[in-house]
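Attaching the record inline, Q. Sequence:
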Amino acid sequence: MAAHPTQPLYLTGGADGSVQLWEWGHPSCVWSPRAPGAFAKVTRVRFSDYGNKFAAADADGNLALWQLHPSASHHQPGQPHASPRPFFTHQCHSKGISDFVFLGSCSLVATAGHSSESKNVAIWDTLMPIKKALVVSWTCHEGGAASVAWAGTSGALVSCGRRGDVLVWDLRARAPRHKLHAHHAPIKCVALSPREDIYAIGAADGDIKVFSLATHQLLHTFTGEHARSSFFKHIGQGVTQIHIDNAGRLFSCGADGTMKVRKLPERDAPPPHQPHY
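Structure, as predicted:
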């Protein structure tokens, strides 16, 4: 699922390959850009920063983007609808896309997946013809890339692999700034803080680690937050989703069927005053 940045809309992607646009308070979907049965399982849906575009990725490696238009004459006033056909569709990774992210308000999209030639992280210009759409691709993350996050202020792309490795890319230089081995288990998800100074990583063993984006230093480790569970096998393993909000709270959910919220310690807080007697 994904929420629109400003409007009461949200996207859903199904295991049957369907993509649907919903409006809060309406019992049925506003638009079905992709019908069930025609494509592989949807692995990620996202709106662009301004909400004028949205995209879906699937387990076959396809990425599709649609425009979100204001109401047409046959729709209710003020009710948005999607273009019936995607303006961009391409198989970006031959063995599936795990994640993607819009790179700010421009036409660029970064994808993380698994390709037969190990080009597992790539940047695409979605306004270019398909043959010219690939901006750059990197051979990295043996076994496939699992997740990506974009820090627009510093121009850094964080990509995480299925073998626990993390790469921080400098998009201006098109080269890695830093590489670290964050987890022994496969990484499942990554989240940047709104200030883009820290990022959190959740792994299949249930551990969560928080790193500084500037220094790449490990700041916090939360061991076994979401342990493996046999009862919730259909969800996956370990930490499945993670989010950091403006108040410095870390939200996480996982294969143990729980959602947890914890306040991250303030890094810049002055030491507590010790009275002298």
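The chain has two domains: 1-69+85-139, 141-266. Confidence is low (pLDDT under 50) at residues 269-277.

More tomorrow.
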